[in-house]
Design goal:
Number of strands of chain B: 0
Order of helices and strands of chain B: HHHHHHHHHHHHHHH
Structural class of chain A: alpha/beta
Number of helices of chain B: 15
Distance between the termini of chain A: 63 Å
Radius of gyration of chain A: 29 Å
Strand content of chain B: under 5%
Largest interface: A-B, 47 and 37 residues
Structural class of chain B: mainly alpha
Oligomer: heterodimer
Largest sheet of chain B: none
Number of helices of chain A: 16
CATH architecture of chain B: Orthogonal Bundle
Largest sheet of chain A: 6 strands, mixed
Helix content of chain B: over 70%
CATH superfamily of chain B: ABC transporter involved in vitamin B12 uptake, BtuC
Shape of chain A: elongated
Number of strands of chain A: 18
Strand content of chain A: 15-25%
Radius of gyration of chain B: 22 Å
CATH class of chain B: Mainly Alpha
Chain lengths: ~450, ~350
Amino acid sequence: MVNLKIENVACYYDSAKILEDVCFSVETGTFLGILGPNGSGKTTLLKSISRVLKPRKGTIVLDNSDIYSMKNTDVAKSMAVVPQDSNITFSFKSFDIVLMGRTPHLARLASEGAKDIAIAKQAMEYTGTIHLANRLITELSGGERQRVIIARALTQQPKILLLDEPTSHLDISNQLEIMDLLKQLCVEKKLLIVGVFHDFNLAARYCDSIIMLKDGKIVAAGKASETLTCENIRNVFGINVIVNKHPVTDLPFVIPVSKPKDQRQRSLSVHLISGAGTGSTLMKILTDSGYNVTAGVLNVLDTDFSTAQYLKIPVVSEAPFSPVTEKAQKANLEMIRKASIVVLASVPFGSGNLQNLEAAKEALKAGIATYVLDEVPIEIRDFTGGKAKTLFSELKKLGAVFVNGQEALLHLLNVSEQKAKEGCGKQGAVEQLKEKDDSTENDITNKVENA
Amino acid sequence: MQTGSSKPPQITRSSKWRRHFGLLILLFIGCVFLSLNFGFSQIPFQDITQILLKNIPGIGNYIQLTDFQANKEAIITLVRLPRILTGALVGAALAASGTVFQGMFRNPMADPFVVGASQGAALGAALAIVLGIGSSALGANALPVAAFIGCIISVLVVYAISRVGSKVPMTTLLLSGIAVGLFELAIITYLQSIAGDKLGDLTFWIIGSLSSSRITWSGMFSILPFVLLGVAVTFLYSRDLNIIALGEDQAQHLGVNTERVKFILLMSGALMTAAAVSISGLIGFIGLMIPHMTRLLVGPDHRVLLPASILMGASFLVLCDGLARIISMPSEVPVGVITVLSGVTFFLFLLRKKKRVDVF
């Protein structure tokens, strides 16, 4: 058993504070991931634990003794470090590099004995690098070299393994292999693993617990499912993400979405009719652009429903895998009436959601501008034996605007937003929207002027 | 990758020392004999052997020298042998300190010049020659003592300047070494400009040679302890040097007290340089190229590289000095010129032959 306690650690580079009041405690058999944006103090934290940078305040306690009062060799016997990338200039054989892991165990004049060589060989076999033993370290690929360095770390026979972005220079298959190896070490050899990682999903998949750092402070700590939330990630990294459950592992699965370009609050509210994931991106983009978005009718468990939940979009929902009932339809129409614009995503239609097309029709009848995203021809996504197609042509007759992509749609929304802002009110905006061609031109000139 | 772990027949280490050491020792003995033979008066190898055996206590009583041999005995024992052994010590010391500095700085171009050791020694010597500093107290010994002190002071100054907090980062050490070295060179240049009739002495010392009147048995014994101490300390820390050569952070993680080891290695390198330079002047090339060439031969493990470099450096300087004596008889060529010319040629040949970018 080993216990590592970080108590109120604060680190500075000259006068710049890098870490502040960092406290946590971890034990044998834990795989701890440290996440945070560049400059948040992750590496500094690792450096202070590995005795490279002494904290100005606080202590780092390894099994009841302060590591800064321990002997170098004693620390190296219980703690090994795998750097981000070990750029080795001298052409040592891999085996010699691994054997250097015995250094803390050897007296100054002693040379490596049979026991040390056996330990080094064992470590190379365990990490699958024994076939590289006679190769020069300078001739290995990044992934191979990193494995050899892990073998060296194991040769130290440590209880703790510290890793600073160990996979950041590696391709995806090497990343997974290294992470699998680390997990194996954690489980089989009961090592305490503390690593700095960049990839949320890699961290979620392998780490037992996660610490999130921002500006040198711990913002969140706990299991992956507790820490990797939309709010935490937005707070720490300043990006928007969608967090789903991984379909296979049931762990959080993070999908980053690019930063919103503008955070203006818009006056228009948009009601989105979608389903089966056809509206998820749009929900995200529209909320990011500042529109008030509503959605419906969506079945619970539908991808779009989950997205709406994550984005906190008001939604009219229906029981899972059930056709739209009258009650839901009524609620949906009510919501539509409050909207300034209805957008219909390229959703496939079956008997269960045909009602949604009816709702769009109602919207048009009520004089609400309706945009139909027509990215996929209706013939392909009509599973109602032609009913949907018929409704589609009715929508067209009623004046629905068909757009062939998200870009065009956003553009049109932008135009109507501007019109609405020019004081025309809701009704006016809708009327002017119908003069589509004209307003598009206006908008382009507006854009040019803005630029 | 993990599946490819078919066991190699045998794991071999980076450095194959057994094979090389026998050869290197033979090389050294060969160079000594050759150099004993070289000179204004040619002495056959058989006579050299007889004279040497005669001078070994115990065996000497059984050896009868011919008249010719007896005539040459003084040349061998009082002139050539001390000179050759001094050359061997100087070559060994320069090669060892070069090895230490290259390993420490992880830089193939590191040598006693980069930490200001050589320039400091040169400045000390220049002050002694041109301004006669210390000559009243020390007489003829003023020059080597001044060079020695100049070297040590210069390295200490460089070390103190590059100190950041409790650490001495390699980059600042390297940069301040170069800066201090240039500063010292500027002063030396000024001293040259005012040297007057002493300019010849100073220039000769800066080029480096083993022909001065200081090269005697007592001269050799005066530097021997310093060289031995430096070599012993570097041997003691050669495994740490291996690890520091990987990078300081990694060394720290492997339990090496990097700051202490760096200071000790720096000082022992400076000590060896000071000892060598104080007696022979600035003999170039050896500290830079010998470790390099030896690394190509025996690999990067300093536990093997250091002794091998020492033997190589000693052999090389002894041979070059022999050549310096006979190339343009009866006058002598400064050995510094020969070391640089021959060494660079050989090194370029090696580089072309190996055609490897990673000279390390």
